# Entry
Amino acid sequence: MASLVKFLALVVVAGGVGVAIGMGLLKLSGDDDPTPDADPTPTTATTPRTSTTFTTASMRAKRLAGVRVSVLDARLFTDETPSGAREQRARMTVRMRAENAGGESVTLARPILRIGSVRIATDPDAEGLPGSRFAALRPGVAQTVTLRFSPAGEATPKVVRDRRARVLIAGRSVPMRVKLRAPAR
# Structure
């Protein structure tokens, strides 16, 4: 009986240590953010006829519920020039498709690239290029665009090593596998 109690105690301790190690690794990886695109300070507005309070964040989430987004392709081009290698610069292109299956038009906020804990906005130099941002999505309409990002610093070696990243768009975090490509000459 004593050996059974010792065995059960060992299992419980080993399980607890395993959970602690797993949580520590999750914290270190930076992939523990449960709310990818939450508005930290939602505003509220009360309609004059009722006492019901609606938050703009919940109304936005309801409109975005009918939007489906998917990553078609993600490529990272590293910069091998001496200054680019020193600053760990790269360029990333992400082809995405968004479809509005909801009942009203939706305008998507600028997508954010997330590599670990680093968040990167779309490249402002590419904003004027055709097909580089989503236009307003009418009901039943789908669009495909090519987003451009310029990761630098700690984000570049992380995405080269892990070959994965996320795009924060339409109130959700969309995971993607990243293909590495040689720099353009």
Q: What stands out?
A: The two ends are 72 Å apart (CA to CA).
